[in-house]
């Protein structure tokens, strides 16, 4: 009986669980390093355009599918379009969430290492170069990074099998505001460092010549990654929403908060990057070599670093839970396995991916797929291909297969709340989002160039 499906406890619970899913390493770790390697402010600009034009419509559409079907990501499409190939979107999502979790849990593991280092004071008194060297030595190792990855997966597993509601909802209520507060304080410290201005210019003053097709593809991938869209995560979560939950308002709130945290993370990182002479193009390690420098500049350095990495670990945890939940709900509901057994399958598989991803910073460095190591290959495949593809297909599905009246009824809670921009939304969802994503893909594949030469 779908009517018995569990739902989140309260309105605040819905927002916090969904914000918890969206806000994570994507905002504080991935976003700054993407800005760094993609030329700074130009990337930020394209990113914000992607959020507005693609992110919000896709998020609302996922909420529609989830709450309307009240099923896991794959089950939703089977229910709404039985016997068709549309369930591919669901499988793409379940697989994608699983693959993301594979490399995400490695970085989540790093946050635990830094949390411990912050606690025992071993981050103290080092120079910028030493932070960089130490990070490289740690991440290229075997036992410690893999141990932390496994620990993080175990933590996620525990929460998943004990049924998340009360714990996650309650923890999020304290953690999310605290994370925000710490971010703001660190931003203030960062912008008052010597030469901070250079970092702000890098982040906010766009150099339009930097906008290339690969920057656009990266920005779109980042927008999808950060908002947790394109992968059935929000379909799964919104299947637990109540019928009173306001879908568009929730989408808007989640998007604004998520973007705010990302921009604040940029303000926290870039002034420090320039002030300490670190290369903004450092890549995945950027946050881990920049922030300890900032903490060193503060009184009570140990408290700041411990607090920060604790919150980062917790923000990562609310996201790993959401990723794990996509696959677990799928295995549990579609194969009639108990939740426990389903979770074991997922955790075991993720651990294998996690070990390979972790080793790709060390002994497996030379093992590349299309020029990328295993970690980067998983990241590329999911963020730049599977997420946008999922988002595009979700829009095409709802745009072509769902009756407008059904869509409108769900999004207005059966006509009880207004949706002033419904037509604009429907237009963007049906025409703009799929074509924009399609064009970006074609452009990246070099096809547009070839075509334009023909004419
Ligand atoms: N959005 C999360 C972050 O920024 C990561 C995440 C959680 C995610 N669930 C997802 C990314 C689903 C893509 C799809 O850290």
Q: What does this protein look like?
A:
The protein has helices at residues 11-22, 25-37, 41-69, 73-80, 87-119, 128-139, 143-161, 165-191, 196-204, 213-227, 233-238, 247-275, 286-296, 301-334, 339-359, 374-401, 404-411, 422-444, 447-454, and strands at residues 368-369, 372-373. By secondary structure, it is mainly alpha-helical. It has one domain (11-449): Hydantoin permease (Orthogonal Bundle). Strand 1 and strand 2 (372-373) form a beta hairpin. Helix 7 (143-161) crosses helix 14 (301-334) and helix 7 packs antiparallel against helix 15 (339-359). The structure holds tryptophan (TRP). The site of tryptophan (TRP) has 17 residues, from helix 1, helix 2, helix 5, helix 10 and helix 14.
Instruction: Kindly give the count of domains.
Output: 1
Structural class of the secondary elements? mainly alpha
- Gross morphology: globular
What gap, in angstroms, lies between the N and C termini?
58 Å
| Largest sheet entry | 2 strands, antiparallel
Order of helices and strands: HHHHHHHHHHHHHHHEEHHHH
Under the CATH scheme, the architecture is: Orthogonal Bundle
Quickly count the helices.
19
Uncertain parts: none
- Specify the CATH class: Mainly Alpha
* Strand tally: 2
Strand order of the largest sheet: 1-2
């Amino acid at each position: 009986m779908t009517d018995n499906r569990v739902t989140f406890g309260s309105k605040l619970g819905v927002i916090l669980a969904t914000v918890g899913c969206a806000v994570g390493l994507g905002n504080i770790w991935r976003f700054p390093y993407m800005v760094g390697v993609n030329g700074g402010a130009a990337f930020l600009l394209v990113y914000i355009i992607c959020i507005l034009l693609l992110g919000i419509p896709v998020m609302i559409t996922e909420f529609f599918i989830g709450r309307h079907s009240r099923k896991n990501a794959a089950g939703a499409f089977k229910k709404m379009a039985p016997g068709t190939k549309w369930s591919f979107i669901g499988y793409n999502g379940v697989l994608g969430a699983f693959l993301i979790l594979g490399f995400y849990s490695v970085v989540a593991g790093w946050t635990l290492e830094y949390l411990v280092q912050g606690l025992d004071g071993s981050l103290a008194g080092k120079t910028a170069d030493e932070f960089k060297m130490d990070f490289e030595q740690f991440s290229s190792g075997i036992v410690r990074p893999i141990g932390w990855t496994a620990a993080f997966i175990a933590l996620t597993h525990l929460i998943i099998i004990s049924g998340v509601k009360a714990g996650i909802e309650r923890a999020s209520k304290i953690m999310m505001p605290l994370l925000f507060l710490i971010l703001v304080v660190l931003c203030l410290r960062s912008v008052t460092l010597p030469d901070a201005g250079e970092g702000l210019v890098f982040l906010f003053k766009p150099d339009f010549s930097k906008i290339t097709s690969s920057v656009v593809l990266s920005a779109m991938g980042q927008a999808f990654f950060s908002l947790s869209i394109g992968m059935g995560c929000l379909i799964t979560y919104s299947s637990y929403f109540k019928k009173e939950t306001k879908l568009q308002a929730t989408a808007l709130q989640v998007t604004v908060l998520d973007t705010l945290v990302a921009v604040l993370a940029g303000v926290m990182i870039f002034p420090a990057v320039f002030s300490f002479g670190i290369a903004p193009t450092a890549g995945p390690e950027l946050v881990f070599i920049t922030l300890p420098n900032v903490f060193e500049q503060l009184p009570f350095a140990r408290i700041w670093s411990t607090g920060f990495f604790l919150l980062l670990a917790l923000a990562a945890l609310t996201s790993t839970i959401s990723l794990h939940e996509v696959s677990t709900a799928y295995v549990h509901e579609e194969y009639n396995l108990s939740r426990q057994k389903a979770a074991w399958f997922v955790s075991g598989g993720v651990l294998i991916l996690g070990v390979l991803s972790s080793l790709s910073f060390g002994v497996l460095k030379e093992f590349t797929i299309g020029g990328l190591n295993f970690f980067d290959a998983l990241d590329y495949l999911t963020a730049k291909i599977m997420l946008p593809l999922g988002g595009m297909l979700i829009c095409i599905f709802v745009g072509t297969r769902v009756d407008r009246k059904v869509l409108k009824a769900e999004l207005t809670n059966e006509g009880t709340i207004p949706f002033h921009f419904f037509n604009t939304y429907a237009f963007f969802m049906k025409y703009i989002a799929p074509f924009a994503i399609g064009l970006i893909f074609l452009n990246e594949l070099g096809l547009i160039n070839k075509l334009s030469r023909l004419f």
